[in-house]
Amino acid sequence: MTQTTVRSAGSTEPTTAMKSSYLLHTLVGLVLMAVISFLPAPAPVTSTGMVVIGVFVGVLYLWTFVDLVWPSVLGIALSSFFINSVMEPPGLHGVWKALQESAGSWVVAFVVGSLLLTYALNESGLTSRIADWFLSRRWAQRSPWSFTYSLFACSFILGMFLDLIPTLVFMIALLNVVFRKLGYTYGEKYPLAVIIGCTFLINIAFAISPISHPVTLIGFGVFTGASKGASIGFVEYMIVGIPVGIIAAVLIALFLRYVARPNTDRFKTVNYAELASENATPLSRREVATAVIFTLVVITWILPGLISLFAPQSPIVAYFDDVTLIVPTLFGVILLMLLRIGGKPLLDHAAAFRSIPWGVISLVACAILFGTLLTEDRVGLNAFLVGALSPLFASGMSPFWVMLLLVLAIALITNVVNHVPVIIMFVAVCVPLAESLGVDNRLIGTLVILAAQMGFALPSSLASVALIFGDPWVKPAAVVRYGAYATLVSALTIALIGYPIASLVF
């Protein structure tokens, strides 16, 4: 497959303007930390709480405008100075407590393990074979749009099980092959619509499934802290998320066909068999072994939640609660490293660990830490926000309309700022209000986590959107236009479809 081409903004060297902008935004972020930390604390927020909020707002600003890595490390380091004033018990030195609540979180370990599994799956060639299978089906070869819908379906299904950027990079590489074979050139509308469509569907798939998706797991971790120990299960979350995702994906695909209406004339003389695969080969032993191990691990993630729906007191549920999700994940990684086929392990640990985006891991660690800190009683933010929002929740407005307004607001904000801090803040704020609204806090947590990942319009929302902004097949203005529609459709689907389903599940 061809390499993904990214549009260059000019010289590879940073310009003076870029350097100035970087320094200015860095200065603004640091000033925000200092100024907010010393502002008078509005009751019931405490003075220590203002320091926590100040550091978080500064880190949030730096995440959005500067970088994801060093602000995350800075946030963890600064928290060591005040964490023992916020969390109990204060048995550890501040730095060790900060590391325990960030890098030591179960979410971080689970994310690393799931990324290693994903790497093995990609390296085996199985994901490429899955794409070829989709494109070689008879129903995919009936018409240009049958073929296009197959591309969308492939993106969506892979996106449910693989991480966001690897899935998108793989699909863009595949699409470059397809566009080359069809004879498309830069500037034509069909490639633009297909890349945008695949990206949006991958974003939705990323939101509706927690499997190998660190951002959803961040939401789960923050929810557990905000709810003082409650948890959202994989199965319950997907029962709500998957119908929402499928309906939103269908509406976006139909929009691209009937409203965007790209020209498909180049398909009139196409050989679909050539598009499907350049070199079909029999399924290899490595692919089979990797798929079996990956599937067994995924079953251990899903099975306890599925059984708990019918037999919550089952010994199997209790056993997996004890071993947690991390243990089967790590055993899957160990098996992949242990088993060798053709003299090579199924998972090359050296290459796999080099492939892990450690910047994302630092972001996850910092996000989990502040998701916990912001909800602590000694900060006072929850009590303050509950008091501020209680009039809305107690206004007599039905829970549905409150959730509709909330989901629309969160989806809009997600398209402006990075989705990770949106999840942290709104899960931490909205979960304590569940009692005022008279609904299960898991319902609000699930809908907030879904809505906070529906970013499509601006590159500041999700890394995938930033990636296609620089793709030569795509026009940024089209991403903004189509993204606005996708945001509205997704938010409405969460409220109209997700809320009733969640009311039944929780």
Structure overview:
This protein is an all-alpha fold and 506 residues long. It folds into two domains: 16-104 and 367-505, no CATH class; 107-355, no CATH class. The protein has 25 helices and two strands. Strands 1-2 form a two-stranded antiparallel sheet. Helix 7 packs antiparallel against helix 8 (144-161). Mean pLDDT is 82; it is low at 1-13.
Give the percentage of residues in beta strands: under 5%
Shape: globular
Q: N- to C-terminal separation?
A: 45 Å
Total beta-strand segments? 2
Cα Rg? 23 Å
Largest sheet: 2 strands, antiparallel
Tell me the layout of helices and strands.
Layout: H1 16-37, H2 47-65, H3 69-79, H4 83-86, H5 94-101, H6 106-123, H7 126-135, H8 144-161, H9 164-182, H10 189-208, H11 214-226, H12 234-260, H13 272-276, H14 285-310, H15 315-323, H16 326-338, E1 340-341, E2 344-345, H17 349-355, H18 358-373, H19 381-393, H20 399-414, H21 419-430, H22 434-437, H23 441-451, H24 463-469, H25 476-505
Briefly summarize what is shown:
This protein is mostly helical and 506 residues long. It contains 25 helices and 2 strands. It has helices at 16-37, 47-65, 69-79, 83-86, 94-101, 106-123, 126-135, 144-161, 164-182, 189-208, 214-226, 234-260, 272-276, 285-310, 315-323, 326-338, 349-355, 358-373, 381-393, 399-414, 419-430, 434-437, 441-451, 463-469, 476-505, and strands at residues 340-341, 344-345.
